[in-house]
Amino acid sequence: MLQNLTKLVYVVADARYFCTHRLPLAIEAKNHGFDVHVMCPSKHHSECRLSSSNDQHNESINAILKAGITLHHAPFNRRSLNPFNALYTIYRITCLYSHIKPDIVHHVAIKPVLFGTIAAYFSGVSHVINAVAGLGHVFASQSWLVRPLRLMMRFLLRSRRVTIIVQNPEDQTELETLTGKPVHLILGAGVDTALFTPTTQKASSETKEIIITHASRLLWSKGVGELVKATQILRDQRYAIKTQIVGMPDDQNPNTIPASALQAWHNDGTIVWLGYQRDMVPIYQHTDIAVLASYYREGIPKTLIEAASVGLPIVTTDMPGCRIIVNHQENGILIPPRDADALADALRQLITDNDLRDRYGQKGRDRVMAEFSSAIIYKKTIAVYKGILKKNA
């Protein structure tokens, strides 16, 4: 335990993301004696007819408060590129930092890293952790519009007060080259291996169909379109499959898939759209193959770690972040991005070979236990916090 209560502030752009990826870590930090705060869009939506997205937001806010964590509203708008909105958000975060006086701030994802680090300079925060969970659009895009953001990122990340955490070796190498300083590698957000456990009852034995599950934010860049095409290819070849898609459109992302498209695929029987699911354990325990055909610059997809923990074989793309959880032809199959035919071929291999699915699933479970469990991830992250405090004591 820490001798003095140390204020630790997490800054994220979405309360739902915080709950799925960081809330257990925040609770662990609280158990280690930190005074934990969360800064995110945190106003309750109170319209008479709430959307599913608003319901999830409100549930997330309640979960944070129930955990005994202090919550602060930061007006992030993940879709907006309006510079006045950005300046207002930076101003609000600066005011909050000046009021809270945190010992450590932990920014997660690109906008919190950009806005939060600028606010930390203005408010005099000494210790800044920038967790870059995948380099995403800012680093992948060749558009001239994002070049100033890359230059700003480079300037902000090179500061001595900034500690960087990434989730995969490719991002580590790229950011070490960009900043000229060491970067911490922590493999993802972790998974509770006691909760996400394999089951002896195979999904296909109950349904006579091979059940394929994709779970993510529903963006085109997550490979949903390619999965739909691959499903159509396999159906035309008379394979008995059921493709499930879990998740909701992200209305604040311009790359989102319209709900109308998802509903149309669901209505014509191409896929089963399950929408948002609070509990993925029973979903994965009644799945035969997990898929994420993403060509987005991922950190490490938490859904793939959860699927591997349940003992599922995985088909994913040979992309940074995705390939860190899957060793090709050991616990899954890696395919080229944006290739529906290759996706159909990989799925066909697993659909037609029960023993291969079992072998890949066991190897995946073993990898998660050795490298990706929440206990391992939390221990490494708390060690980063304490190392910063010790170095500057």
Total DSSP E strands: 13
Order of helices and strands: EHHEHEHEHEHHEHEHEHEHEHEHEHEHHH
Q: Catalogue the unreliable spans.
A: 45-51
Globally, the shape reads: globular
Distance between the termini: 16 Å
Provide the gyration radius in Å: 21 Å
User: Kindly state the mean pLDDT as a whole number?
Assistant: 90
| Share of residues in strands | 15-25%
Strand line-up in the sheet with most strands: 3-2-1-4-5-6-7
CATH class bucket of the largest domain? Alpha Beta
Structural class: alpha/beta
What distinguishing features does this structure have?
single chain; 393 residues; alpha/beta; Rossmann fold; 2 domains; seven-stranded parallel sheet; six-stranded parallel sheet; 13 strands; 16% strand; globular
Topology:
Elements: E1 6-11, H1 15-21, H2 23-31, E2 34-40, H3 52-66, E3 70-73, H4 83-100, E4 104-108, H5 110-123, E5 127-132, H6 136-140, H7 147-157, E6 162-166, H8 169-179, E7 184-185, H9 203-207, E8 210-215, H10 224-236, E9 241-246, H11 259-267, E10 272-275, H12 281-285, E11 289-292, H13 302-309, E12 314-317, H14 322-325, E13 332-335, H15 340-351, H16 354-372, H17 374-391
Helix pairs in contact: 1-3, 4-5, 5-7, 10-15
